[in-house]
Amino acid sequence: MTRPPLRGRETELTELRRRLNLLAGGRGGAVVVEGTAGSGKTRLLAEVSEQARTQGLRVFTGAGQQAWQVLELLDGLPGTSTSAGPDDVVRELQEGLERAALDTPVLVVLDDFQWADAAAATAVRTLLRRLAADPVLWLIARRPSASRDLDADVLSLGDLDEAAVEQVARDVLGTTPHPHLSELLAGAQGNPLLLGELLHDIKDGQLRAGEAVTRSGLAPQRFRESIRRQVRQLSEPARAAVELAAILGRTFTAGQLARMLDRSPATLLSPLREALDAQLILEQSDRFAFRHDLVREAIETGLPEPLRRDLRRQAIEASLAEGAPAADVAALVLQTATHGDTRSIALLQLAAAEIAPRSPLVAARLSTRALDLARPGAAKGALLTDAVTQLVLAGEVDEASALFERYAAAALEPPTAARLRCLLAEVLLPADATRSATLCHEALALPDLPEHLRARLCAALANALIISGDAAGGRRHAQAAQALAAKNTDPLLMSAVVITDAVSGFQQCDWETGLHKADQAIRLRDQVPGARALWLPDGYKAMMLDAMGRLSEAWQLTEAGLRLARADGQHANEWTWAMIRARILLRSGRLNEAQAEAEGIQAMSEELGTALFRGFASSVLAHVALHRGDPNLLPAARSHAATMGPGKAWKGRGQWLRALLDEASGTPAVSPDPAMDDLFSGCVDIVALSGHAETATLVRLLLRADQPERAEAAVERLTAEASRHPQDRLVAAAEMHARGMLLADPDRLSKAVEMYDADERLLLKARVYEDAGVAMARTDRSAGVALLDSALNQWSSLGADHDAGRVRSLLRQHGVRRRAPEGPQTGWAGLTESETRVARLVALGRTNRQVADELHLSPHTVSTHLRHAFVKLNIRTRTELARLSPDTGLSLGR
Questions:
Q1: At 874, which helix (H) or strand (E)?
Q2: What is the model's pLDDT at position 634?
Q3: How does 370-386 read in b/e, with b if 16+ C-beta sit within 10 Å?
Q4: Among 77, 115, 583, 765, fewest CB within 10 Å belongs to which?
Q5: Among 573-582, 741-750, 782-791, whose mean pLDDT is lowest?
Q6: Given this model, what pLDDT does residue 377 score?
Q7: CA pair distance 335, 66, nearest whole angstrom
Q8: From residue 626, how far is each of 186, 275, 300, 641 by CA, in Å?
Q9: In this protein, which residues make up the domain named HTH luxR-type (predicted)?
């Protein structure tokens, strides 16, 4: 049967050809082609693909996969492996497409995307974002969807108009259709596939031109009858073959079909050739496929429903007997499973286990369905554990928690219930420490728990309490965890327990012991090579060093940990290191890099659908906004400050950020909430971005709000800590700064300037110079102005525009005017050092992954730097960047 010419889609084809021309010029993007089944999507994609090849563009094709055939997105792209985890596959696809697009623009064509499972859809959504600057055009076809979850233009294929229908009729029949025939063709409702079937029925004499067919929906029925009539005209063996094949699905193997028919594959030669000749099925690599979904559906629905149900069960067994993975038959299992069906439940469990490494979310859906099918009183513990674990791994923490709560009253064994609570408690940290602590308390109240599980629960509870601000409670449970694990030989459990004890001691001012125990926890973890531990003892040590102001040591540890996480494929750990990296960058005054890192973390959070690190990234961006006065970031900073919580400690951190924002905006001072004071109990806070060095800022805010008693109490707490660490210059410097602010003492503040002179925390150092200048100018104008000038130079060199503007205002009060920059620079001169390095490497043809590896950054951070560079250079694509000539400012040197 010859397909009708592509009629009635000229406008859409012209638009897609326009996009191809833009692609040839280096401009990528994405277009979703939406249309009902048979509306011509596949034909349109084929036409555009052929045009792209004619223009010399590279074309990669794929199809949306059903939920149990995940992430097999592209055919012909070298270097990808669908056996890897979902994030690995995305990275490989990104790298492969970037490499391909370096030489020639790329068209990616994905058909039937309505079948894409959650993992495949997420992968494409991620790739669209990551490759937005590359000469890659995505052409994605799917049936109409209310969802607009892809960042793409939508091209809708409506019904063919009357003129197009008439032209198709002339093409097929060779003559202008009679008015009676036009009435009949109207029943196809402008659907090209249905229209073609009707016309060929007429041409073959199987339908009378005067037969009435209206727009009431008879055309799909007519189409089904036409397909079934073709099937009835086949020989008996061929008819049986295609009917049973329709049960197997859109694609099938000769072996599966032979099993269904209880024959040898050799006997199918003639029946399959007959079905191929009738164009009911097609060859597709090493499988057979139905010509169209509607063809398969028409054949399958022609069978009685009770028979279909039994045949589906037979198809499951035939596929399994042929060695098909359980994941491949999961669709049929879901169609046939009934309540209490132990065979189906077992198959769904097996399918979930097979799919979990590639797509935890799809696996969770199968496990949840298996859980729903299990009868009351059945052993649901394993099913619930699987489903909750898979949801957690997929980042669906809220759904995992809700599923657990739904079955919490089920007859679960106490250890199972406790393990699930422990899993949720660990994954909720640090986003929801209050809920995490509650789960731990509930689990610890259960009877008959093994000591190793109690130890793990106590360790998680200790961390939750520390984050929530209950340092004493955290210490108590850290000691309990250590006692419970004393006889345990599992190094990973011991590592988790020891690092919890280290953090607890550190936050109670026992710094050196905390660092020593962190080293011990690292050695325990390293006893299990390649272990993917939930705890990062070296990460906690890096945060300790960061909180102490030992930024160089923290940075070295972070870089080493980040490289190891990437080499071992431990992506969750990689993002933990990115979070630590962002806070070090912020404290060291590298505002542009801190912003890029935090925005990269937010992009990662959106892709993974998790909020675990989003709050911390928002805190970093809020502090960047404070120093810059960035109007694009400040609204989000205020929103973040207003929603920080729950828990006393988080409330205090929100109050602290709000107070800083109010001061920066000149809002009249109000009495800060006492919860804020608890952040400055005298010891270093490993979690918050505030610490003992910021006590002077707390004093300033309290004095501004006319709270001198609270300000004095804060200084006294810091003095007590200084007495515990008499040899520590950082504590002594912080105490000198804070007391100088309390007393407005220029001598103390000048001494603080000397003590901070070699400090690595450049934002803090600039503030000390400013505070000293303000106090000194009251008694010695010349010395005060010199200190303020130094502070201005420091703020300006860090890009802290808001802080620099404040110091210029202070200088004007003393009759000194310092000119502000005329505005943000554009072009190459406006790029930061990091943006310049990234742009240079990209212009030389490096992929994002190659740039990330060379500069020891995450690909998300590279993407952020590149996006900022594009804005400043007023370009949109890599191609435009590569075309910039050296005399515009692009230099190959460092």
A1: none
A2: 86
A3: bbebbeeeeebbebbbb
A4: 115
A5: 573-582
A6: 64
A7: 14
A8: 65, 70, 64, 12
A9: 824-889
The one-character DSSP state at 820 is: P
Burial 130-156 (b: 16+ CB within 10 A, else e): bbbbbbbbbbbbbeeeeeeebebeebe
Token pair for residue 522? 């690292």
The residue-averaged pLDDT of 249-259 equals 90
Which residue from 496, 150, 99, 143 is spatially nearest to 293, judged by alpha carbons?
Answer: 143
Mean pLDDT of 525-552: 81
Alpha-carbon distance of 588 to 601, in angstroms, equals 19
Residue 555: how many CA atoms within 13 Å on its side-chain side?
A: 14
Within 10 angstroms of residue 18's Cβ, the number of other Cβ atoms is: 10
Gap between the Cα atoms of 212 and 226, Å rounded: 16
- Asked if 109 contacts 139 with a C-beta cutoff of 8 angstroms, the reply is yes
Q: Give the confidence band of 719 by pLDDT, cuts at 50, 70, 90.
A: very high
Phi, psi of 111 (to 5 degrees): -100, 160
How far, in Å, CA of 399 to CA of 691, rounded? 35
User: What's the whole-number mean pLDDT along residues 860-879?
Assistant: 83
A 10 A CB-CB count for 215 gives: 12
Instruction: Report phi then psi at 358, rounded to 5.
Output: -95, -35
Number of H-type helices and E-type strands within the chain: 42, 8
Tokens 């699905």 sit on residue: 249
Of 468, 552, 596, the C-alpha closest to 866 is 596
7 CB-side CA count, 13 A: 22
pLDDT in tens, 401-442: 888 888 876 667 899 889 999 988 887 776 677 888 999 999
Q: Pairing state of beta strands 251-252 and 136-142?
A: unpaired
